[in-house]
Amino acid sequence: MKRLQSLFGVASPTVRLFEAQMKPLSPDVRREWEHLICRLAFGYYDNLPKRYEKFIRRYLSHSPDVYLNYLRLHSPMGAFCYPLLHPDLFLKMVHLLETSERKTKISYRHLASSILLAFDFRLKISTLSKYLRTYKHAPEEILKLIGKIEIYEDDMLD
User: Measured between alpha carbons, how far apart are the two ends of the chain, in Å?
Assistant: First the structure.
């Protein structure tokens, strides 16, 4: 926490100020700062001053790949990601379910970060959100989804 406080000095911590401070630094040093923010966010968040809580929330919202990479590579969360048997089919189904009856605008970035946190995809949030945003399902996709599931008479009796 002291390192972060020394970075900002008496100024109120903001994402813009942090980005300006990081600009001249090497990618390795920047990554160290990002890890520091994540360690504070996931280990000491409840004990931070309110202005640093606000900064961390805004920074991680601004740069979701930072927290996603941290959780997947530097915490046990990476070991809990579920490996999908048919990842392409899963994404088509998620898109179909989330967009078919929704009346409000969907945040594909939020959906993508949630998927990447739970399932074993090696994609960036921007890549997955772009895929989800631009994917257009056709009636034959629904038939393909249905074709993957076999229903037996015994299943119908249960």
Answer: 57
